[in-house]
Design a protein that fits this description.
Layout: E1 7-13, H1 26-35, E2 40-47, H2 51-64, E3 67-71, H3 82-90, E4 94-96, H4 98-110, E5 124-126, E6 130-132, E7 141-146, E8 149-154, H5 158-168, E9 183-191, H6 196-210, E10 217-224, E11 227-236, H7 239-257, E12 261-263, H8 269-280, E13 284-288, H9 294-300, E14 309-314, H10 318-325, H11 329-335, H12 340-354, E15 358-364, E16 379-386, E17 392-397, H13 402-427
Helix pairs in contact: 1-5, 2-3, 6-7, 8-13
């Protein structure tokens, strides 16, 4: 029987995954591995050790997706109920595979132990299913064909699941042979300075049109701290044609987004700005107060940043703003530590001490306390001094908690440098 697999769902089984101490990390690996075959993960769910609930969840999933991958619940204990729930939903019986029982018994014997009788449960195989060898554990996987759908039952431990799924996805594997020629092709665009709704407003007319194409482009808009991402995915058996289609689509989106689009190849903002600095032979330094060195940490996370980063000063207290950066005490007393005059003086001070071409200063109120009616929590002043260009100083009020305010402050500061460098390049004769 041959049929092509296009869509999949994952069900992670285990009451422990519903708590606060264990995460379902298998789904990420499964999604990435299936995508290499052109199988798109459409949904995933986590369910506790409840046979009826798992049965109903699986029964729904198998009606709407070509492949349902169930992870976990294949052990020998009473709360391992995956086999029973899936066979209940499919209406098929199970029987013990003596060869599997012998293999488990030998596994115990090699460790000088006698197999407990309850491990025979792991040798129960649904009628018509293929048992999948598990050299890294005692629970075999199960491959079940149900009409033109497939149920794949995999053990929960990643060291057991991953090699098993990799083997299935080989060209001659049980999944690889059914995947067809189509593959998933994707591109991304990263933006900053726009809200998710603003990105949608600018781009939705474009990707609404692409949904009606013979090979539709699926678009995902993802809001993350400090930026909004657009991910375009196309399922096609023509790799060259898919690349051309996605390149054209990405080009249209970048044109619509303008300068707000800072990356089309997966690079994050510090990497993009670092390459701009390096290409122009410029150096960077920073004076930070409320961000406590986060800007410099993000910039130096990029390999090769020693080629353009001079260093930074964290002057959290007013005394150190004066001592280390030369900020006028009178200016702080008159305008406050969180003010445009103070930020400008910090930028000048770090320039005087480092002679960097690009100097950024950040001072603000990250919270949760310290805000006033005039300067609420989230107020951040950013000053940027670039040799040969006017000093830029701007006050922002960022939403969110302390971590969010600090991150947005650094993102806005780094983006400000990018904008100045691009404008300088555009102004050159």
């Amino acid at each position: 029987m041959t049929f092509e697999l296009r869509s999949a769902e994952v069900i992670a089984v285990g009451s422990e995954l519903l708590g606060s101490t264990r995460l379902d990390t298998n789904s990420l690996f499964i999604s990435r591995t299936l995508a290499s075959l052109g199988i798109l993960l459409k949904a995933k769910a986590v369910v506790g050790d409840d046979r009826a609930l798992l049965r109903d969840l699986f029964a729904l999933a198998i009606t709407r997706s070509d492949l349902v991958v169930v992870t976990g619940g294949l052990g020998p204990t009473d709360d391992d109920l995956t086999r029973e729930a899936v066979t209940d939903a499919l209406g098929i019986p199970m029987s013990e595979d003596e060869a599997i029982t012998a293999g488990i018994r030998n596994r115990f014997a090699r460790r000088g132990m006698v197999m407990p009788a309850l491990n025979r449960k792991q040798a129960m195989v649904p009628e018509g299913a293929t048992a999948l060898n598990n050299p890294n554990g005692s629970a075999p996987g199960l491959f079940i064909i149900a009409g033109e759908k497939i149920a794949l039952l995999l053990p929960g431990p990643p060291r057991e699941l991953q090699p098993m799924l990799n083997a299935l996805c080989q060209p001659d594997g049980l999944l690889g042979a059914r995947a067809g020629l189509a593959r998933l092709h994707s591109v991304s665009i990263f933006t900053t300075g726009l809200s998710e709704s603003h990105v949608e407003e600018l781009t939705q007319p474009l990707y609404a049109r692409w949904r009606d194409a013979p090979e539709p482009i699926e678009t995902t808009v993802l809001a993350t701290p400090g930026q909004v991402e657009l991910h375009l995915t196309l399922r096609s058996g023509d790799a060259v044609g898919a690349k051309a289609t996605l390149d054209d689509a990405r080009g249209e989106l970048v044109k619509a987004l303008g300068l707000f689009a800072f990356s089309t190849d997966g690079r994050q903002l510090p990497h993009v700005v670092g390459e701009l600095l390096q290409a122009r032979g410029l150096t960077l330094a920073a004076a930070e107060s409320c961000t406590g060195g986060l800007l410099m940490a993000r910039m130096t996370d990029v390999a090769g940043s020693s080629g353009y980063v001079r260093g930074g000063v964290v002057a959290y207290s007013n005394e150190l703003k004066v001592q280390l950066l030369g900020v006028d005490q009178a200016a702080i007393e008159t305008h406050g530590a969180v003010s445009e005059p103070t930020a400008a003086a910090m930028a000048d001070g770090v320039h005087d001490r480092t002679q960097a071409d690009v100097c950024v200063a950040i001072t603000g109120i990250a919270g949760p306390s310290g805000g006033t009616d005039a300067k609420p929590v989230g107020t951040v002043v950013i000053a940027t001094r670039v040799t040969g260009h006017p000093l830029s100083v701007r006050t922002h009020v960022f939403p969110g908690g302390r971590d969010m305010v600090r991150f947005q402050a650094t993102q806005t500061a780094i983006e400000g440098v990018r904008r100045i460098l691009l404008a300088a390049s555009a102004a050159r004769p």
